[in-house]
Amino acid sequence: MKLIDAKKGQKYQINKINxxxxxxxxxxxxxxxxxxxxxxxxxATKNMPILINCDSLNVALGNDVSKAIEVKAI
Amino acid sequence: xxxxxxxxxxxxxKTTLYNTLTNSNEKASNYGGVTVDVKNAKLLASKDIYIxxxxxxxxxxxxxxxxxxxxxxxxxNSDALVxxxxxxxxxxxxxxxxxxxxEMGVPFCLVINNTGGFKNADELCIKxxxxxxxxxxLIDARKRKKCNKxxxxxxxxxxxxxxxxxxxISTTFKIEEEILNQTEFLYKKIxxxxxxxxxxIINYNLNKFDSLLFKPWFAISSFLIIFLTMFFxxxxxxxxxxxxxxxxxxxxxxxxxxxxxxxxxxxxxxFFRDGLIASVCSVLSFLPQIIMLxxxxxxxxxxxxxxxxxxxxxxxLSKIGLSGRAVFSLLFxxxxxxxxxxxxxxxxxxxxxxxxxxxxxYYTCSAKLPIFALLCSCFFNDNKFLVVILLYLLGFLxxxxxxxxxxxxxxxxxxxxxxxxxxxxxxxYLPKILRDMLNNAxxxxxxxxxxxxxxxxxxxxxxxxxVSFEFVEVFSENSIAGGISSLLKPIFSPLGFSSAIILAIIxxxxxxxxxxxxxxxxxxxxxVAGLQSIIIAGSGxxxxxxxxxxxxxxxxxxxxxxxxxMAVTKQEFGGWFLIKSLAIQLGVAYFASLIVLLISNGxxxxxxxxxxxxxxxxxVVSFMxxxxxxxxxxxxxxxxxxxxxxxxxxQ
Lengths: 74, 651
Known about the structure:
CATH class of chain A: Mainly Beta
Oligomer: heterodimer
Order of helices and strands of chain A: EHEEEHE
CATH architecture of the domain at 2-196 in chain B: 3-Layer(aba) Sandwich
Helix content of chain B: 55-70%
Low-confidence stretches of chain B: 647-651
Distance between the termini of chain A: 12 Å
CATH topology of chain A: SH3 type barrels
Mean pLDDT of chain B: 80
């Protein structure tokens, strides 16, 4: 499933990152690589980014970014 | 010269540590991207050891403009000792770059920040020292605590052991798979190191108040309440009383020391009284309001609130072609446009970055504040607060409109790539806020001591001497400045501006603070209270009416900010962008103040004609932009048109 559809409070593992080059490196630099575990603090809405926690860091990802990351619930 | 470079991920406290180790006062905040250039200062109690503070970056595969600056600097200064800064709450992520540096052979010592309240920090430090094989220190940079051990180490380190070497840092992109494998490998290694050190990652869950700040209804209403309160205190009774007190105090002090100035005549008396004392004191009297504004901005920054504002406004900003990241630059714009222009470097998307720079001048910087305070207290004393709020709102609406129009005309597809580290919500730390506030006040005083005094003297000379260098007792059209203003009068006469007001507008291009100085010089007033009486009377060289005062306020709000902001715009975005930006600002300022004047005077027929002209100009310009638009793409991190081979190009 896409990260943009992720539910609040659920833990996920990143499966695939379909971002173009520069954004791919940007998410990677924040520890969001394939296999990383994340926790949804606040789900995405139409006008708001998603807020996820990855290894104690809260990261906000805009809708186009979270649409391009695929995750699986764990 | 011995060199130390502060390296680390963004938002780990590098600038705060730099300020502590060098006793400097550089701007530091609790969100990434505040440092956008390399800064250096001498290490405390040392002769030739210099510390360099560079923008934070996450890995050697970094790409934004300020990250590239850091990597290049590190590469060019391989004979320096690196002080690598980590946040104790974020060790897993922060150690990633440390391991990359280690692989490259960079000599570094590890500094763990924010250790206050963390149990077993000493044990962690000892174990990390062994695991990473680098000297390790614990500090609390925000509270300037526990830094002495590190300072002693840096003062006594044998820098002669460091030699120039060639780091293998690639500033271009490698193959994604290669990077991904390296990332996985390094993170596994970090997990192993941290488990040996008994370090446990504590996930930060939002508390109830923090959760509320992410709810749109609460976030937006609290934002409005906070900003209205801020402006109410700054421009309302409290701010005005403090300002009046300061004006009286400066005037009393000056004329007590130089009593002959009060009623004297002649060139020397005029130079000191009108050219220096009156100009400088009038600008200084607004110091309390500027201090108050910066106190509130520092308070909001220190708590982590601004990052929440960026999160909430991202959706709205993406609709007008900006991103949540632009919030930091836009809010900085309320302080100083020049600094705000530099902070746009943390916006990766070149188009969003340019658009942010284009609209920044419409955000009222603190230099415009004295002009608003002066004219509003003359004409709208009962509704002063409301008029100031409306002016701020007008600036905001114009910026939204310009950003939206340029975004729609450019037909960009990708506009919202918002990625932001969310700092923890903290209680404000008063000493830091007071330090920031003091630094901003000193900056303001320094500006008065430099450019404003020079501008005041030049303007005094131009307004008190004729073309044949004869002394003129009062400002008139016979003076040099009066002659220049007369030349521009046909352009400004539809706005109802007199020669003195035109001169103030021209001087305002150097620095907005000089506008008050020029009004003082031109009116012959020797105190702010005297200037207010002259403005209210609407007589002499300053023939302000309520309508022309409003038009003047709108013009000052929207026309180009100052020469330093222009220089930074040229440096960051090029000369052509600056010319376009200035043309838009001048056009918008002129027509907006004309509309305000016509509405205030009830001249609706003229208003319709002006609106039609604006509409025709807008349609012609939009067609020109549409058909002249280049087909080339611009990339993330690139501010100029990219070549086909640009490695940052979208795939």
